[in-house]
Write a structure and sequence with these properties.
The chain is α+β, with helices and mostly antiparallel strands and about 160 residues long. Helices cover about 30% and strands about 25% of the residues. It has four helices and nine strands, in the order βββαβββαβαβαβ. It has helices at about 40-55, 85-100, 115-125, 145-150, and strands spanning about 5, 10-15, 25-35, 65, 70, 80-85, 105-110, 135-140, 155. The protein has a five-stranded mixed beta sheet, with helices on both faces. Helix 2 (about 85-100) packs across helix 4 (about 145-150). The chain is globular.
């Protein structure tokens, strides 16, 4: 890394000022059940990643601003990879994530019929972790740990 330095956002920059692709030590991943409708996949993904952003402020970058000075909200500093798999794959990934102690967000089938946060939390709280009817999870952690959690899943198409 002789010709590279890190800027204030931990992004690599070559000595000449050109940006070098960043390889993150951590991974943000969402795993969705492959039998969901398109609208459900989008909804579940949005809900799941919102949990990671609030619980792990270090994964969120700086606010954006356009050339006119209009401010925009910050977003994740790194890509979110979206995977899919069958019910068994999601259940197994959840078990591995919990066992490894990785920050994990869950979305169960019951949440499609609730209408607000308190009802969502009550629906999850009513079921033991091994009986949750998971339709998706989001997980963050070291790349190799997240890769092991996602074993058997495939990139979302």
């Amino acid at each position: 890394m002789d010709d590279e330095t890190n800027n204030e956002n931990n992004e690599q920059v070559e000595a000449g000022g050109a940006e070098v692709p960043v390889r993150f030590d951590t991974k943000i991943a969402v795993l969705l059940r492959d039998d969901l409708e398109t609208w459900q996949r989008l909804n579940v993904t949005a809900f799941l990643v919102s949990g990671l952003g609030t619980a792990l402020p270090e994964v969120v970058g700086e606010p954006y601003e356009d050339a006119d000075g209009t401010p925009y909200l910050p977003m994740f500093r790194q890509p979110v990879l979206v995977f899919e798999g069958g019910k068994e794959a999601v259940t197994a990934a959840h078990e591995r994530a919990v066992r490894r102690g990785l920050p994990t967000a869950v979305f169960t089938s019951d949440l499609f019929s609730t209408g607000h946060d308190r009802a969502n939390r009550a629906a999850v709280a009513a079921v033991g972790k091994d009986q949750l009817d998971l339709v998706g999870i989001a997980v963050h952690g070291p790349r190799n740990s997240v890769d092991k959690v996602l074993k058997g899943a495939r990139m979302h198409r």
